[in-house]
Amino acid sequence: MSVGVIIPAAGRGKRMGTKVSKQFLPLGDKPVLIHTLMVFETHPEVDEIVVVAGAGEVSRVEEMVAQYGLEKISAVATGGQERQDSVRSGLEHLQTEWVLVHDAARPFVTHGHITELLKVVRLHGAAILAVPVKDTIKQVDPAGIVERTPDRQSLWAVQTPQAFRRSLLVQAHQRALEQGMTGTDDAMLVEELGIDVRVVMGDYQNIKLTTPEDLAIAEAIWKMRGTER
Ligand code: CTP
Ligand code: MG
After folding, report:
1. Is the Cβ–Cβ distance between 186 and 87 less than 8 Å?
2. Cα-to-centroid distance, 119 and ligand 2 (Å)
3. Is 193 helix (H, G, I), strand (E, B) or coil?
4. pLDDT tens digits for 60-112?
């Protein structure tokens, strides 16, 4: 029943465009990465956490982990070129029955959603958090002309954590590597195996810090949560 978590934190944050990679930026009193790690560190069902850091940042992350007294971090792995490579690297350090993959740049995930996701993955083997899209989404061709408008009812914006039986995720990554396939999330690689992935309702506050305006939104969510405490 053991649960491991992989936190890919090896990205450069090109779309954010800050000198310091977004996962190391301060949010309130701590770096974003520490906020994210603390959610999992304090979740009673999480047994161990593997952080994946950029090649030159492993010791820096190890120091941060020590500084904040995080005790569930079992390894700081070295990341790769793409997020998928980083997750695969993290997977090599875990032997738990279940694995959650969660972006370092998503500090607002809650214990409640992690618990719910674990409940569903234990029943079905693959589960992800997602929210219904708010905007109408259009598929547009390279010339900038609308091709079609998918029915919004069936569109969900996918978040992390994404949870899997570890053996399934290992198999999915192995196959993707062999076939030279890149997925934008881990679920996509599992879907390629023909496995059903269950969607669990997330919440709109579980944002990924991606572009500069997300920093202001993150500060606002952080302040709002503070007054709720
Ligand atoms: N990530 C990673 N290794 C990579 C690329 C991304 O571990 N080679 C991590 C990021 O650190 C982040 C998460 O995957 O926590 C989600 O990726 P994304 O938001 O795309 O972050 P970046 O790749 O850093 O940003 P960008 O795509 O704008 O460069
Ligand atoms: Mg990226």
Report:
1. yes
2. 29
3. coil
4. 999 999 999 999 999 999 999 999 999 999 999 999 999 999 999 999 999 99
- Radius of gyration over every alpha carbon of the chain, rounded to an integer in angstroms: 17
ipTM of the modeled complex? 0.99
- The rounded Cα 64 to chain-centroid distance in angstroms is 19
User: 37 burial class (0-12, 13-18, 19+ CB within 10 angstroms)?
Assistant: buried
| Pocket perturbation via mutation, ligand 1, pick of 16, 49, 83 by most ligand atoms within 8 A of CB | 83
What are the structural domains of the chain?
3-228 (3.90.550.10)
Task: Report the length, in residues, of the chain.
Answer: 229
Mean predicted lDDT score pLDDT of the chain:
97
Per-residue model confidence as pLDDT tens digits over 212-228: 999 999 999 999 988 66
* Residue in 37, 101, 103, 108 to alter for ligand 1 test, most ligand atoms within 8 A of Cβ: 103
- Torsions phi, psi of 41, nearest 5? -55, -40
Instruction: Name the token pair of 13.
Output: 């944050």
